[in-house]
Amino acid sequence: MSAENQINLFDLSDSGAAVAAPKVDPDLIPTSATIPIPPGTYHSMEEMKAHCDRCFRCDLGHNRTHAVVGEGNVHAQIMLVGEGPGQTEDETGRPFVGRSGELLDKILASVKLTRERDVFICNVVKCRPPENRTPTTDEAEACKGYLLEQIRMIDPKIILLTGATALKGLLGIKQGITKVRGQWIERDGRFYMPIFHPAYLLRNPSREQGSPKWLMWQDIQAVRKKLDEIQNG
Length: 233
Ligand code: SF4
Hints:
By secondary structure, the chain is α/β, with parallel strands linked by helices. It has one domain: Uracil-DNA glycosylase-like domain (Uracil-DNA Glycosylase, subunit E, 3-Layer(aba) Sandwich). It has nine helices and six strands; from the N terminus they run H-H-E-E-H-H-E-H-E-H-H-E-E-H-H. Strands 1-3-2-4-6-5 form a six-stranded mixed beta sheet, sandwiched between helices. Strand 5 and strand 6 form a beta hairpin. The longest helix has 21 residues, at about 210-230. The protein is globular. It binds iron/sulfur cluster. Iron/sulfur cluster binds near residues 52, 58, 125, 126 and 139.
C-alpha cells in the first residue's frame, strides 16, 4: 500500500462519524451574524468562549461584562438551557447564580443531581440583555450557532428548556410554557422537556397541588426517571 493510501485510511470524511471541516474563516464568526457557524467549528468550550467574549454578532455584545457560555459537566447526559444572563451572571461569567441558581440547585438535588456532575447549564444568548429583557428573535438567532455547537460537543440525551424563550429559540415552538411543560418532545434522538424557569417559581412560592412549584416537582422526577432509563437501558 502506498504511503498516500495509508494516510487515506485515517480520512474519516466519508464515514459519517466525522464532522465536516468548516468552510468559513472561523475568526470571522464573532464579527457578524451573516457568517455561519458550521458544525465542527469548535473543539472545546474554552475555544468557543474565546469567540463569545469578543462577539458582536448581535448588539448584546456591546452590553456585556462577561459572555456567559455555560458551566457544568461537558460529558453530562442532561443539558439545561435558560434564556440569557442576568446582572450577577454578567458580572461573574457564570450561569444561574443568585436566587434562581440556588433554587435550581435545590431542584436538582431533590432527585440527587448536581450541576457539577450531572448537568451542563447554558443559555439561549450568551450576553446579558439590557434590563433583563427577553432576547429578541434576531438575537437568539445570531447566537444559536454557538448553542448548537454546545449541543453537538456535549451530546446530551436530555435537554431541559427553562422557559418560553428556550423553547422557541431551540425548537421553534411558540407555545406558552404552562401548556407544554412536563411533556417530552423527541427530536434527533434527544429528549427535550420544557420546564418552568426557576425565576418564575420564585415569584410563585405556593407549594399546593397544581401550583408551579408542585408541577416542577413532578417534572424533575420525570427527568430523573428518564435519565435512569437511559443509563440502565
Ligand atoms: S449574545 Fe451571542 S451572538 Fe450576541 S454578541 Fe453575545 S455571544 Fe454574540
